[in-house]
Each structure stands twice: as C-alpha cells, then as structure tokens.
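USER:
Before I trust my own judgement here, I would like a peer's view. Write it directly below this note and I will take it from there.

ASSISTANT:
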Amino acid sequence: MTGELLSELRATTRQALAVSAGDIVDELGLSGLLVDADRGGLGLAEPEMALVATELGRDLSASAFLSTAVLAVTLLSRSDTEVGADLLAAVTRGSAGCAVAIAAVTPANSSVAAVPGPGAGWRLSGTAVVVSPPGVPGIVLLAAKTPDGVAVFAVDIADAVLTPADLLDPNRGLADVTVSDAPGRVVLHPECAHSGGQIAYRRALIAVAAEQVGVARACLDSAVEYAKTRTQFGAPIGSFQAIKHRCADVLLEVELADAVLADAVRHDSLPDAELAFIVATRAAVTGSEACIHVHGGIGFTWEHSAHWHLRRARVNATLLGPPSVHRDAIARSVGLTTTEEVPG
C-alpha cells in the first residue's frame, strides 16, 4: 500500500476514534482487515494492521482488534476444518466476536484438556487466559491437549464461564475462561494448530509492538504540549534543561521503536518481531513514566489520562509472556546462549 493510502487509513482511523463511542472494528469493518479479498475480507496486510494498532495505542479504547481481527482471523484463516471456514466467514462479516486463548498463540502450555465426546465431538475441561473483545464474545478459541497433540477448538460462550481479569488496564480485554465438559468443535488439528499458532504469535507481537509505539507517541505529544504551555518562574517549563532532556530521551526511544517495528513488518521473521516488541515496550514504559513526571502533580491524579497509558504499557509488556522469554528468543536467534556459567 502506498504512503498516501496509509495516510488516508490513519486519518480515517483517528476520525472514527474521535467520534465513536463504540468499537472501531465494527465502525470501520476491520474484522476482515487481514482476510483475503476473495474470502470477503479487505485483503490488506501487516503494514495496515500495524497502523491501526498504533492508533489504538494512542487512544486506548476497548477494541476487538487484537482478539478478533488479528488473532482469531489468523488462526481461522489457517483452519483445516469446515467449522473454521464457517467461523472465518462469520468473523469477516462482523457477526461473530472471538475471544482467543493466549496459549493458542504463544509457547505457553495449555491447561485445557479435550477428550472425545459423543459422535465426532469433543469435550473440553480446564481454564485459560484469553484476549476478549468488548462485551460478550460469541465464540472462544481454546488450545486444548488431545491424544495427538495440542489442537485449537471453538467453544460457544454459553458453554463457558468468562470472568474479566482484575488488571491494571480493564480496556485491554483480558479474561479467565473456565470450561467443564464443554462441547468443542475442532478448528485446527495439532499440525495446523502449531503452524497457525506460530504465525498468529508473530502477528500478535507486531500488533502489540505497534500499540506500544502508539502509547509512547501519545505520551510524548502530551508531555511536549504541556511543557510548552505550563509556566514556572515566569517561563514555560519546556525551556528548562531537565524537561528538554527528558522529552528528547523519549523522542529517541520512540523513533527507534518505530524504525524497528517498520523493519519487523517488512520481514517475515519471528526474531525481528520479538525485537520490535521489546524495543517498543521500552519506549512505551519510558514515555508514559516521563509523561507523568513532566505533568507534575496533575500527572499523578486519577482525573488525568497519563496513568492509563502507563497501565496499558505495563499490561502489554507481559501480555505475550515475560520479557525474559522474548530476550532469550532474540539471543538464541543470533547464536548466543541464554545462561552462562559464572567463573568460580
């Protein structure tokens, strides 16, 4: 997509976020963003995905973008079953929101087990942490252990108990799902679940990294604007060296994160996505903390929006696993060992 069209998509997304009280995934029909045009989707790709995620990071609205438009669509697009194809069509039309288990797209071990049920069905029991859209999703995609390996199943929300997680950022959409002898339909058999999960994991890293860049940019813009207008000792606080240096440090972090993210989008490489996630998360945390400090006393209050950006940055930092997991993966990709003997 050309730069002009990317700019148009950015402007449209910002306008929708500014005027909408709902989810822009519904407002702009973004459920099918990554679905091929011949399957009813928009036929766009990761540059557009990253752009939308960046704008969502600036706004912090609750959205089905990560859960449905990125994770669910990526898994369902690689389904080897009729159930998966039907669900993908429903998601693309915007008629089905999906919650997706983190274990379905990350190396985390699944704590859900599946046993054969009546006929060709399966019964699932266990608990999982999921990324959920606003409101109540219609379907939950769960990774579950079977005799042949870990497969991905679709479970109707009526057969599961979904409890929103008590986290720093309630708009992130994390929840706990419990199933007990719940009927499940196979979406991806073990082999496809593994390959599809790897692709979804990489896309999730890029989407969350892009959101972190959006968080960091919003904080930088807010801090700079406040530093221009807030006066102390008869001068704007932005004229003081300490404030200048703090904002300049954040700018460097943001520009670096943006560049690493752009590189990860261009290359189909998991280590590049891991690196983008790490660098963008550092920028988001640094930027949100600096934003609070630059705003002084008002920045620490509940009424100001600064703390919400810090909340999102912190929750995103561990959304796809501990930071050490991503750093170890990067180290292994360049031939470094992750543990070394300490000389005695």
